[in-house]
Amino acid sequence: MDPIRNPYAPGAGQRPPELAGRDEQLDAFDIVLERVARGRPERSIVLTGLRGVGKTVLLNALRSAAVRAGWGTGKLEARPDQSLRRPLASAVHQAVRELGPAGGAGDHALGVVKAFSQREPASGGTTRGGATRGAAKLRDRWNPGITVPAVTGRADSGDIEIDLVELLSDLGGMASDTGRGIAIFIDEMQDLMPDDVSALCAACHELSQSRLPVIVVGAGLPHLPAVLSASKSYSERLFRYSRIDRLDRDAADAALTLPAEDEGAAFTPEALDAMYDATGGYPYFIQAYGKAVWDRATASPMTAADVAVAAPEAEAELAVGFFGSRFERATPGEREYLRAMADVAVELGDDSDAVPTADVAAHLGRKPQSLSPARDALLKKGLIYSGERGRIAFTVPHFGRYLRENA
C-alpha cells in the first residue's frame, strides 16, 4: 500500500479522517448553540474520559461548529499551577475579534478584557486580610495586544471570581447585541487551580441565570465532575456532563473503513475483527494500528495476516509515544506504585476498573499512609485519577497491560 496515501492520523489532538461515533455530541451541541442564541436556558458542557478517547478532537470539532454558526470562540489549555486569568483573557480576546463588532460595544468589550488581563495579582505576599500587597511589577504585566484603553472598574478588582463574572457578563451583553454568542473551550479542565474552578462555576451560574449567550465547553479526565462539585455544590446542575468513551464496534469499523474507501482500499471482515480486538475501540489506538497496517499491507483488501504483521510496529509506536512518555515522567517510587496498581487490577479480575488504595498498599507490603506522597505525585502528573474516595485508576487505557508486559 502506498504510504503517501495513508489516511490514518495518530497524534495528540489530531483530527482523524473520520470522526466516528460522536454524532450524538455534535448534534446536541448544534441545538445548544441555537437555543442559547435565542435566549433559551441551557447549561455549559463538560466532556470527560480517559486519555486517547478523542476529547480534544471532539472539543475542536465543537469549536468548528460554533464558528460555522457565527459565534466568537476562544480556546485554552489549563495547566497545573497556572492562573486562569492570562490564557482566558487571550481566548476571549480572540472570541471578541471573531465577532468583530465595530465601535462602542466592541471597544468596551476589548477594554474590559484588557483590564481583566492586566489585573494579575502581584507575587510577593499578601496582607493580613488576604489582599495582594502592591501592584504587579512592570515586568510581570502582560500586554494582550489590545490598543483600546482598559476600562476602569470592570473585571479589575483582583478577585478572580468577581472579575470573571463581570468579564463574561459584559462579553455576553456585547454578544447579545450582535445576535450571536461566545463559546469558550477549555481543555485539561481538571488542571485548573481551585480558585479558578470556583470562579468559573460562579460565572457560569450567573450566565445561566441571566441567559446571556456565553457558554463554556470543558474537557478533562473522568474525575473532573468531582473537581467541580468540590468547588461549588451546584455544579452538578450547572453543567451538562458527557462521558466520552471508546467506540462501539460499528463506529470503530467506520473509523477504519471509510477513510480506506476514500483511497480505494478495504479491510476483510477478519481484519476488522483483529483490529477491534487489538484496539479495544479506543480512537487513538485505532489510528495507530490503522497507520501501521496500511504501511505493512502489500495489497487491498487488508487482511488479518496484515494486522498480525503490523501489530508489533503499532505496539512499539504506542509504547514510546503513548505509554512510555508518561511512564518516564514517574520517579522510581512512583513506578513501583503504578506496577502495583496493574498487578492488583489483574488480581481483581478487571484491568479497566479502579482499584482500592488499601489493596495497592497491601500488595507492596506497606502502610497506606507511607504511599501517600507517591500517590499524590501521580495524581498531580495526571497518570492516575481518583473518581471516588479510596480508589484510583489509570488515566490511560491499557496502561496496566503495558506495565505488566514491560516489567
From TrEMBL:
<keyword id="KW-0067">ATP-binding</keyword>
<dbReference type="Pfam" id="PF13191">
    <property type="entry name" value="AAA_16"/>
</dbReference>
<keyword id="KW-0479">Metal-binding</keyword>
<feature type="domain" description="Cytochrome c">
    <location>
        <begin position="176"/>
        <end position="327"/>
    </location>
</feature>
<keyword id="KW-0349">Heme</keyword>
<protein>
    <submittedName>
        <fullName>ATP-binding protein</fullName>
    </submittedName>
</protein>
<feature type="region of interest" description="Disordered">
    <location>
        <begin position="1"/>
        <end position="21"/>
    </location>
</feature>
<dbReference type="InterPro" id="IPR009056">
    <property type="entry name" value="Cyt_c-like_dom"/>
</dbReference>
<keyword id="KW-0547">Nucleotide-binding</keyword>
<keyword id="KW-0408">Iron</keyword>
<dbReference type="GO" id="GO:0005524">
    <property type="term" value="F:ATP binding"/>
</dbReference>
<dbReference type="InterPro" id="IPR041664">
    <property type="entry name" value="AAA_16"/>
</dbReference>
<dbReference type="InterPro" id="IPR027417">
    <property type="entry name" value="P-loop_NTPase"/>
</dbReference>
